[in-house]
Amino acid sequence: MNKKIFNKTQWEILICTVLLTIIGFIGLFSTSKNSGYEEFTKQLIWFVISVIIMIIFIKVDYNTLAKISPYLYGTAILMLIGVLFTSAINGAKSWFAIGSFSFQPGEFSKVFVILFLSYSVTRICKHRDDINKPLNLLKILAIGLFPVFLIALEPDLGTAIAYVVALVLILFVSGINKKYIISAILLIIIIIPILYFFLLPEHAVNRINVYLNPNLDPRGIGYNIIQSKIAVGAGKLFGMGFGNGTQTQLGYLYPKTTDFIFSAIGEEFGFFVCGIIVALYVMLLTKAIGVAKNSQDDLGGFIAIGIVRNTIISCN
After folding, report:
1. Is 119 exposed, middle or buried (0-12, 13-18, 19+ CB in 10 A)?
2. What ranges do the domains of the chain cover?
3. Listed residue (15, 23, 34) closest to 270, CA to CA
4. pLDDT of residue 1
5. Which of 18, 167, 307, 308 has the fewest beta carbons closer than 10 A?
């Protein structure tokens, strides 16, 4: 059994993951030193827990996980409903807090939803063209979009988009007809302007505008984006050195341990290391897509392509 797992291990994916983890920990160690390495310690604990979980689940057949996925999906839905009754943090009801421990059910539930969505496609669509039957497609869309609706209520639009990307990728590889793809693209083209001009709240429109042009509000919403660009530019080719980034260490870059960790790494380690990070992500994506493409059955392919979505969102 162990030899079989060893032979089937995608070493390129493992190597890329290990290298990205090492770079991330080095960057996090530097950026969290002013706070007593709290974020670094927290991530280190989660890393150890994740490795233990990986070792356990690497021996579990994904078909077994798929069979219990309806219960996992139900658990995810209950958590996503329950979090709506919690207190808002930074304007969103996205977190469960139990003492000093906290987690986002939207992040935690991603794998559950991907498993059940993949399982549902294989169960509903017995033949390749069954996905194009309107009733089957509606069932799959309902399964995929219901958690998106709940996450949008928090509101956490970034995580909601991540779920949508997983749904789109799974539908695409399942053999959905081009007419549905073209119709969806046309619908998006029509809906986006309507959302932007008439339906989105003012703060959401402002975030979009400032994202496209941070100088519209350089001392407000655009401040962090501008500082992140300054940090990356200050790093030049080889960076200012470990722990020597002015934007990072003097508090101009915020939040430096999460949203802008890439900018912090760029300032202290330069364009060279940033280029390595991008190259590693490209390799990781390519190999992950290859796993989905060469899967022995549809279920494995759907799960793999759904998990590729996590990598795509991480790249952003």
Report:
1. buried
2. 1-60+203-316, 61-199
3. 23
4. 47
5. 18
What the block records as the tokens of 99 is 């003492």
What burial letters (b/e) apply to 134-152, b meaning 16+ CB within 10 Å?
Answer: eebbebbeebbebbbebbb
Cα separation, 239 vs 70, in Å, equals 48
Q: Kind and range of the H or E element at 190?
A: helix 178-194
Task: Quote the CA–CA distance of 210 and 220 in Å, as a whole number.
Answer: 9
Quick check: 232 pLDDT over 80? yes
Q: By CB neighbour count within 10 A (0-12 exposed, 13-18 middle, 19+ buried), where does 232 fall?
A: buried
Backbone angles phi, psi at 265, to 5 degrees: -65, -40
State the pTM of this model: 0.80
Looking at residue 27, its pLDDT comes to: 92
Cβ burial, residue 96 (10 Å; 0-12/13-18/19+) = middle
Distance of CA 123 to the CA centre of its chain: 26
Q: pLDDT tens digits, residue range 155-176?
A: 777 788 888 888 888 888 888 8
Return the SS3 of 92: strand
Q: Is 270 left (phi over 0), alpha (psi -120 to 50) or beta?
A: left
Q: Which two tokens stand for residue 161?
A: 């988009």
**HSE of 264 in the Cβ direction (CA atoms, 13 Å)?**
27
Residue 262: closest CA among 222, 235, 223: 235
